């Protein structure tokens, strides 16, 4: 397939005024009758053919303005030549046949355990009928569904229904990617919500029978999201019904179809016994994210898929703000930055690096990335920091007022900020077009009471983009005195040249600079600080993110020294950790996070950045030793904290109790390294919630124990698909490196291993990504296993296969022997005609 280029964008030659779809559902022969009213686009040149996208459709009949025509579809659609088109508006009608039952790719109309459902973003609608399947063609839809199944749903408001049929009408013009249909034997948990405009909205969460008791948290999160979007962004819901459906077979997390959100069931269903606190937080976040898309994505959509971050970056930013408001801003920020670094920085450093707005793509499904989502959100966070909160709000108000009902671009987005803030943002816009994580190097000078900070920026080359220009980088910073008191409170410096100096005169003593507070820009900051300065920041920084960061930098430096020189953690670090863990003034959730030492992949990345070839086995060994030494040194404090973190009363997934459980589980996990798992076994035996049960079992697995507990866990939860996923993945994540690939192979023989189910596949094969030493085992067994499964999966579900291939994206870091093994596997994958996005060529 040929790449598609942003520069080649042309407006659609025909617009759509109305769509009417009839579905006669049958597993192997569903009939879809589409009636579409087209009119020539006044903004396009005249005389175009009518080109409709369509893939895998059996055309039964086609009519144009009432007359039957013979159309010859090709493999990607059909064309009616311009000379055969009547003047003016066109009434197109087509009947096609499709087979949802055999659709294992889970794009278009497919079946999941007896239920019909759709996934149309990005280009699934063309697998349902012939249509101009592009986001800048927006139309109101009417849908009729004919089926014996009891629940028949589509977008918009219900229009009418009878025995074996239902009709829906969505008055809001939408692109085809937001179309959805669900039919199944489902039950609803229902509620109501009155909007600030006085609209009474019926809320339903549709699940399989038996799952009704696991929907309360999702419903609560939905109502809180609706209130929040009204209060914070002034956005109200705009239909009479909002339906959510939980589906077991789903490629991603969820989908924001207008009025009919479809969710992977793992992001809807929760009970204290079956879901962890982190599952609850994901449910809250994803429910909010999809709901927020109603305005940022649906009412205002993207002109083309290059603009994907216009809706995704903004909606991620909005869900981050919401989660901060619901829980803790500082803890949420730390978690978001850890995710950004683990996923997006990793992407930027590998062969798949691309800008937030890519310039070309071959397969758009491969651009639903951490760069488009998470880095896209960081760009909006920076915009808010640069223009200030009031102007951010004014810009958003202008965006909604000006662009409601439109398909927009990043230019439209930047323009509202330029107008609302009265400033030129052309240099800021480079962030959207330039791939790679900028490095900011710091040097400092202290003379006669004057402190000078010099910042230098540079962005490393990325594949296909060797030349980088300077960006506008907001650096939030403050200065601390030797006693920890703040000499200069948070100030935002704007670094917009390759090098800039900032002077702070008249200071009583040499300060310690706390830079990039709140992680004010998605950059790597190279600021060498002594361990005393880091310890001071860990103890006193007023910025919680930098406080956390100081502890993490200390841990990272120690782990580097352990890997490279066989050093051991010194008393400074252990004392700082001891003080922090017992500091009752600190949020338990923060303490739990600060007790985590950097992970294996994080260390591999930082060692590589420091010019070393990371050895996964040495990293794993250093981490194991460090955890044991920490556990031994902090044993009394960890015991106290584990005992103190009780959560009396009924289970609540709120931030307070979740933070206490996180600290308890983290303390018990560390203690397992010093008490042979005694406390963990005890916690496992009396746990009445999944957070503690799984946390305790994980702690045992991590020290090579937990076999009996694992068997017990399986017996207890064999009937719960989502918990069985956890049972699989925990074993893989904690497997000893040399045994990991063998264990995965063995688990694929388990009767519960359903490889065509994306959740199950990820929990067994994908979990190897969470065990870097296992995946990178020197015999190459991990690479071979992943490649074998990738080849097998690609023919069945190419989207999931492409995602799995990103396990290889860090190949460049490793030694020649591992690189050769990976190269051989990637060549084997390519030789089978697989279109995986990753490649190893000379300049990647
Ligand atoms: N906008 C959606 C992205 C998406 C997707 C979802 C499910 C299956 C396949 C998909 N392809 C793209 C989800 C979101 O960002 O909210
Ligand atoms: Zn989204």
UniProtKB/TrEMBL annotation:
Q: Return the EC number.
A: 3.4.11.2
Q: Which cofactor does it need?
A: Zn(2+)
PANTHER family for this protein: PUROMYCIN-SENSITIVE AMINOPEPTIDASE (PTHR46322:SF1)
Biological processes per GO annotation: proteolysis
Q: Which residues form the Peptidase M1 alanyl aminopeptidase C-terminal domain?
A: 532-835
Source organism per entry reads Roseinatronobacter monicus
- Alphabetized InterPro entries for the sequence: Aminopeptidase_N-like_N, Aminopeptidase_N-like_N_sf, PepN_Ig-like_sf, Peptidase_M1, Peptidase_M1_dom, Peptidase_M1_pepN, Peptidase_M1_pepN_C, Peptidase_M1_pepN_C_sf
| Catalysis: reaction(s) | Release of an N-terminal amino acid, Xaa-|-Yaa- from a peptide, amide or arylamide. Xaa is preferably Ala, but may be most amino acids including Pro (slow action). When a terminal hydrophobic residue is followed by a prolyl residue, the two may be released as an intact Xaa-Pro dipeptide
Query: SUPFAM superfamilies this protein is in?
Result: Leukotriene A4 hydrolase N-terminal domain, Metalloproteases ('zincins'), catalytic domain
A GO molecular-function term, please? Answer: metallopeptidase activity
Alphabetic keyword roster: Aminopeptidase, Hydrolase, Metal-binding, Metalloprotease, Protease, Zinc
Give the protein family.
Belongs to the peptidase M1 family.
Note the superkingdom of the native organism: Bacteria
Matches recorded under Gene3D superfamilies: 2.60.40.1840, 3.30.2010.30, Neutral Protease Domain 2, Peptidase M1, alanyl aminopeptidase, C-terminal domain, tricorn interacting facor f3 domain
The Peptidase M1 membrane alanine aminopeptidase domain sits at 217-431
Domain Aminopeptidase N-like N-terminal residues, every copy: 71-178
Matching CDD domains: M1_APN (cd09600)
Domain spans labelled Peptidase M1 alanyl aminopeptidase Ig-like fold? 436-527
Q: What is this protein called?
A: Aminopeptidase N
């Amino acid at each position: 397939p040929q790449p598609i280029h942003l520069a080649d964008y042309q407006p659609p030659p025909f617009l759509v005024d109305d769509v009417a779809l009839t579905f006669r559902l049958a597993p192997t022969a569903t009939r879809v009758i589409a009636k579409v009213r087209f009119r020539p686009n006044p903004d396009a040149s005249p005389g175009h053919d009518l080109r409709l996208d369509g893939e895998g459709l059996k055309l039964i009949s086609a009519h144009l303005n009432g007359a039957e025509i013979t159309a010859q579809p090709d493999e990607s659609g059909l064309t009616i030549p311009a000379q055969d088109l009547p003047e003016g508006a066109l009434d197109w009608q087509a009947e096609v046949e499709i087979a949802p039952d055999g659709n294992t790719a889970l794009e278009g109309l497919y079946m999941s355990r007896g239920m019909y459902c759709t996934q149309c973003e990005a280009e699934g609608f063309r697998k349902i009928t012939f249509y101009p399947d592009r986001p800048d063609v927006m139309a109101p839809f009417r849908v009729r569904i004919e089926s014996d199944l009891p629940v028949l749903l589509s977008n918009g408001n219900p229009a009418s229904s009878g025995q074996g049929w239902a009709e829906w009408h969505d008055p809001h013009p939408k692109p085809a990617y937001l179309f959805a249909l669900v039919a199944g034997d489902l039950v609803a948990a229902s509620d109501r919500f009155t909007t600030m405009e006085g609209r009474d909205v019926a809320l339903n969460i549709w699940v399989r029978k038996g799952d009704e008791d696991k929907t309360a948290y999702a419903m609560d999160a939905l109502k809180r999201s609706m209130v929040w979007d009204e209060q914070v962004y002034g956005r109200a819901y705009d239909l009479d019904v909002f339906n959510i459906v939980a589906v077991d077979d789903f490629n991603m997390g969820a989908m924001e179809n207008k009025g009919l959100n479809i969710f992977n069931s793992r992001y809807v269903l929760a009970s204290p016994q079956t879901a962890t606190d982190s599952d609850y937080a994901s449910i809250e976040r994803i429910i909010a994210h999809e709901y927020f898309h109603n305005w940022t994505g649906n009412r205002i959509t993207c002109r083309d898929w290059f603009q994907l971050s216009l809706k995704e970056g903004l909606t991620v930013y909005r869900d981050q703000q919401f989660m901060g408001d619901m829980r803790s801003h500082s803890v949420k920020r730390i978690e978001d930055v850890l995710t950004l670094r683990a996923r997006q920085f990793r992407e930027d450093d590998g062969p798949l690096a691309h800008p937030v707005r890519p310039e070309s793509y071959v397969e758009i499904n491969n651009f639903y990335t951490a760069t488009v989502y998470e880095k896209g959100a960081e760009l909006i966070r920076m915009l808010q920091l640069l223009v200030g909160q009031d102007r951010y709000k004014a810009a958003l108000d202008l965006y909604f007022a000006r662009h409601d009902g439109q398909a927009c671009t990043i230019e439209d987005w930047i323009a509202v900020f330029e107008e609302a803030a009265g400033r030129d943002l052309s240099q800021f816009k480079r962030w959207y077009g330039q791939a790679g994580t900028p490095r900011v190097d710091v040097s400092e000078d202290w003379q006669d009471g004057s402190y000078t900070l010099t910042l230098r920026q540079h962005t490393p080359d990325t594949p296909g983009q060797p030349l980088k220009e300077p960006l506008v980088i907001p650096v939030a910073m403050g200065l601390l005195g030797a006693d920890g008191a703040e000499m200069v409170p948070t100030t935002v410096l704007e670094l917009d040249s390759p090098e800039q100096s900032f002077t702070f005169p008249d200071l009583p003593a040499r300060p310690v600079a706390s830079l990039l507070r709140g992680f004010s820009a998605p950059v790597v900051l190279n600021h060498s600080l002594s361990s005393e300065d880091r310890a001071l920041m860990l103890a006193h920084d007023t910025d919680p993110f930098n406080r956390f960061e100081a502890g993490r930098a200390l841990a990272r430096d120690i782990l580097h020294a352990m890997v490279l020189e066989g050093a051991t953690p010194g008393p400074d670090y252990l004392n700082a950790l001891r003080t922090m863990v017992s500091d009752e003034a600190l949020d338990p959730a923060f303490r739990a996070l600060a007790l985590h030492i950097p992970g294996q992949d994080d260390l591999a990345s930082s060692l590589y950045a420091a010019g070393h070839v990371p050895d996964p086995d040495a990293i794993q060994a250093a981490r194991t030793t460090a955890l044991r030494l920490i556990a031994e040194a902090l044993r009394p404090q960890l015991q106290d904290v584990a005992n103190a973190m009780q959560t009396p009363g009924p289970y609540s997934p709120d931030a307070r109790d979740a933070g206490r459980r996180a600290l308890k589980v983290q303390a018990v996990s560390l203690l397992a390294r010093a008490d042979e798992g005694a406390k963990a076994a005890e916690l496992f035996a009396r746990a009445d919630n999944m957070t503690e049960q799984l946390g305790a079992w994980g702690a045992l697995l991590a020290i090579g124990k937990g076999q009996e507990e694992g068997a017990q866990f399986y017996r207890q939860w064999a009937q719960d698909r989502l918990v069985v996923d956890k049972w699989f993945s925990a074993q893989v994540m904690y497997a000893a490196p040399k045994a990991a690939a063998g264990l995965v192979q063995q688990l694929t023989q388990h009767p519960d291993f359903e490889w065509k189910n994306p959740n199950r596949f990820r929990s067994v094969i994908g979990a190897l990504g969470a065990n870097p030493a296992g995946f990178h085992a020197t015999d190459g067994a991990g690479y071979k296993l992943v490649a074998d499964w990738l080849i097998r999966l690609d023919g069945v579900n190419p989207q999931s296969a492409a995602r799995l291939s990103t396990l290889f994206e860090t190949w460049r870091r490793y030694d020649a022997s591992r690189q050769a093994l990976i190269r051989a596997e990637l060549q084997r994958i390519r030789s089978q005609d697989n279109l995986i996005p990753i490649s190893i060529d000379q300049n990647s």
